[in-house]
Structures are given as structure tokens and as C-alpha cells.
Amino acid sequence: MSKVRTLKIYFLLIIMALFIGCSKDSGPSRPELSVLSLPSNGENCNSGSSVSDTEASVQFSWTNSSDVSYFMLEINNLETQQKTTSRVIPSGDSNNIVTSKNLLKGYPYEWYVTSHSDDYPDDIPTSSKWRFYLQGDAETNSPPFPANLLSPNSGEAISLNDNGLFNLQWEGIDPENDNLIYTLYLDTIDGLQSPNDQYTNLASSNLLVSLQSNNVYYWRIFTEDSFGNNSMSQVQSFRVLDN
Q1: 167 - beta bridge partners?
Q2: pLDDT tens digit string along 126-139?
Q3: Between residues 82 and 139, which one has the greater pLDDT?
Q4: What is the mean pLDDT of the chain?
Q5: Are 230 and 174 a contacting pair, CB within 8 Å?
């Protein structure tokens, strides 16, 4: 084989190697949603340590294997509606993110994480939303979480069935899995009026209710466990279309 031909083959191999190497470098990946780990969903918090009579340091952890510049940890006190937002920057190449925040004891919380990338500023995936209860020092049984109002959605316009009924649905969760009883508050004023007797002592988390067309309704759910602990959801509203 001539030297010229050998050189041509050599340079061709170099070019092919460079092309393959470049094709493998696809740049930073888009951010992906995080997978939450702790505190566990729907349970009493077991990842905290007391720092005072009123506060505990709670450890939050999640995993994410994509290229993320930073995370935003969102924590919402479900009773006071006070929200806390923290920027968390991943360290090194670790996919496991851990951070701690001081929170008030004796309250239910909801938390989630959004993933942010400087290379893809418009892609901000959001994790699932998890709830936990942070017990006070003297508590032996935790109250149920405020009910999650599922249907209708807040501000939704709904249609009634042929009998003028609609099935209201909600979700009740207790950290110790105690039996739950519900009371439905439903009115056309503000959701704060006294409930009808037929809407009390409900064992099911849904109820067919008779509604009037072309009206705006307000509703909330009072939840009580078998130990007498209780919680109240936020008020939501919906509109009934004119059938």
C-alpha cells in the first residue's frame, strides 16, 4: 500500500472519530421532574429534629438525574396558607438532593419541587405534591389533613345530570389512617354558612347534591377523625350552567 493511500486512510479515520465524538456530545439535557423522597406523603414527618418548643428542622430530599441548574422548593402550610420558597443548588454530580428547613410544629404541610435549567429557561417541570404533618411535642395523635377538593375544580363551570344533581368529590387523608367523618358546607353566599343536617356525618368522600342552574356555589369540607381531631379545607367556588 502506498504512503499516499495510507495517509488518506489515516486522515479519514481521524475525521470519522471526530464526527462520532461530536455526535455523542448532545449538550445539556432538558430538566426533568424530580422524584420526591422525604418527608413521606400522607404521613407524620419522621425526617425532622426539634430546634425549639415551636419549631423543628425538617429534612427534604428528592432525586433528579437531568441537567438542572437549581431547584425551587415550595412549602405550603395548609392551615395558615403561609408559603415558603427556597432556591436549592445541586452539589457536584449527585442525583440525590437534600436540604433542611425550619417549620412550625403542629401543622400540616404540602411541598413540591420545580426543576430549572439555565439552558432551557422555559422548561420548568413540577414534581408531585406531597403532604405531611409535623407533630407538636405533646401530640400523640395527629389531625387529618385538610380535605383536598377534587370535583368540581375551583372556578369550574359544571352541568347537572337529568335529575338536577351533581356528584361532589373530595379526598380525605389521616396520618395514622384513622376513620374519617365529613361535613359538607355548601351555599351560594360564601361557603361559611351552617351546613344542612343531610350534609353532616358523611362516611363517604363524595355526595350527590341537588343544585340550581345559573348559580355560583361555595363549598368546603370539615374532616374529623375517630379521636376528635379535625381540620377544615379552604373554600372553593364553582358555577352551575343554565341547563
Answers
A1: 208
A2: 999 999 999 998 88
A3: 82
A4: 90
A5: no
Q: What gap in Å lies between CA 144 and CA 129, rounded to an integer?
A: 17
Enumerate the β-bridge partners of residue 169: 151, 206
* Ramachandran area for residue 90 (φ above 0: left; ψ -120 to 50: alpha; else beta): beta
Query: Residue 216 in contact with residue 63, Cβ under 8 Å?
Result: no
The answer for residues whose C-beta is within 8 angstroms of residue 15's C-beta and 6 or more apart is none
User: Burial letters for 84-123: b for 16+ Cβ neighbours within 10 Å, e otherwise?
Assistant: eeeebebeeeeeebeeebebbbbbbbbbbbbbbbeebeee
Q: What angle do CA 42, 47, 49 make, to 5 degrees?
A: 130
Amino acid symbol at 222: F
| Distance separating alpha carbons of residues 145 and 85, to the nearest angstrom | 21
Three-state DSSP class for residue 154:
coil
Find residue 111's DSSP bridge partners. 75, 130
Please give the pLDDT value at position 8. Answer: 54
Residue 115: name the closest of 212, 216, 33, 235 by CA.
Answer: 33
Q: What share of the chain is helix, strand, coil (3-state, %, to 5)?
A: 10, 40, 45
List alpha helices for 154-209, DSSP H. Answer: none
